[in-house]
Amino acid sequence: MPDLQDNNVFKSKITDYVLACWIFAALSGLMFGYDTGIIAGVTGTDDFLNKFFPESYKKRAEELETNYCRHDDKSVQLFKSSIYLAAAVASFFAAKACSSLGRRPTLMMASVFFVSGSLSAAVAQTYRVLVLGRILYGIGIGFATEVAPLFLTEIAPLQHRAAVNILFQLFVTIGIFIGNLVNYGALMHPTGWRTSLGLATVPGLVILAGSIFITESPLSLVERGKETEGKGALRKYRGVEEIDAEFEQIVAACEQARQVKHPYLKLLGRSGIPPLFITITIQIFQQYTGINAIMFYASVLLQTMGFKSDMSLLSSLVIGLVNVCSNFMLIYVVDRVERRKLLLVACVQMFISQVGIGVILSFHLLETGTLDQSLAGVVVVLVCTFVMAFAWSWGPMGWLIPIEIFPIETRTVGYSIAVSSNMLFTFVISQTFLSMMCFLKYLIFFFFSTWILVMGIFVVFLLPETKGMPVDLMGVCMETTSCVEVVLQG
């Protein structure tokens, strides 16, 4: 097997075709983000609630709300969060499809689920059809979140691997921003919620067309015994003729991977436990930063702080724009800065932001009344600094590090566990956040800041650095103390 340092001489060129393949694959992230952006607005409209949740609509109309107890309805929360349960289950089937069929057909299946799910929900006249649409869309999220980051990492040259992988998270943030824009416009119409749900078919169809256009991952082709096609695909993705050394490395790694007949059992062995533990822990931490609580319920939080409905939606747009811009910034720096440094600096920034919000609310926001306008502005700035830190660290790294840390023989199944864990804890947060805020009040921000403190300790003592490590040789890395000595010691 080639020496690890040999990868520095692998040549590549970014052609128009390669760039288009990156974008088509990453576009599936927009579907994930778009649903995150619109769902709070959709379920917050009287028209939607009156049709599908009449009891909740009646309860909301009659209920006396306080600053910390708004829209705390478990049936509606379950409807919003159930999509992530479907995604959690679907990720395991997506892993099987990736291994047996390839990355491209799996991406194609994701787009079909997206289109069918969004159309079903948009035209739904009954609760059952509406739920069916959510389930189908959730399956699409599970498939897309499994295959897209995996595919992007495998087709990217080493020197651009992180930046290419982060394109998926970038499109997630763009989707959230577009969803907020739709909330600000379409939901003003009496049936605007149908427009919001149905608009997801447009990018879904683009992804379907793109999945026909792109070339299969070279590694996937070699994995399935198609070495000639794999070599041609690698030449196409590198844009140069000198690909023999890199191809030999892929073939050697795949030969080693074929020796593992039961990858799930391999994950439970001595070499499998450390990356599995790190992967699941990162997914838990990613959600317990509080990011999805803020992105799902930004308008509710801002109304709590005294903003009127229109102003809270406008502020959500600003937060979404900060999210997108921060991801663009990360794409530029991610292959220049170590993963651990990015995560640690972000922990400090997120901790200060969460504590700052908690302190302001604890002294100045009672059960009733509003914040002073200047203090409300400070809270919005702190929310933006929090979102900014997450967007260039724990958000994209939550998808990148699990792919980098698993060797080829367990990468697909290991990453499916990462996706499933992420979706499961997304479900937990989205299902419980409003109830937690009602119970804990301003203390919820101290709850999340405590988790952020634990995250920083985890990075310092247990997370190995994966920047610059060839993805095809991660198995070698995980067996050496230079890569993960703290995790494997003892």
UniProtKB/TrEMBL annotation:
Keywords tagged on the record: Membrane, Sugar transport, Symport, Transmembrane, Transmembrane helix, Transport
Top-level taxonomic group: Eukaryota
Transmembrane portions of the chain: 14-34, 107-125, 131-152, 164-187, 276-300, 312-335, 342-363, 375-401, 413-433, 439-463
Membrane topology, as annotated: Multi-pass membrane protein
Major facilitator superfamily (MFS) profile domain ranges (all copies): 21-467
Chief location category: membrane
Subcellular localization: Membrane
Gene3D superfamilies: MFS general substrate transporter like domains
Entry-linked PROSITE patterns: MFS, SUGAR_TRANSPORT_2
One MF annotation (Gene Ontology) recorded for this entry: monosaccharide transmembrane transporter activity
Keyword Cell wall biogenesis/degradation: no
UniProt-listed InterPro entries: MFS_dom (IPR020846), MFS_STP/MST-like_plant (IPR044778), MFS_sugar_transport-like (IPR005828), MFS_trans_sf (IPR036259), STP/PLT_plant (IPR045262), Sugar/inositol_transpt (IPR003663), Sugar_transporter_CS (IPR005829)
GO CC term (a single one): membrane
SUPFAM superfamilies for this protein: MFS general substrate transporter (SSF103473)
Sequence similarity: Belongs to the major facilitator superfamily. Sugar transporter (TC 2.A.1.1) family. Belongs to the major facilitator superfamily. Phosphate:H(+) symporter (TC 2.A.1.9) family.
Protein name: Sugar transport protein 8
Organism: Sesamum angolense
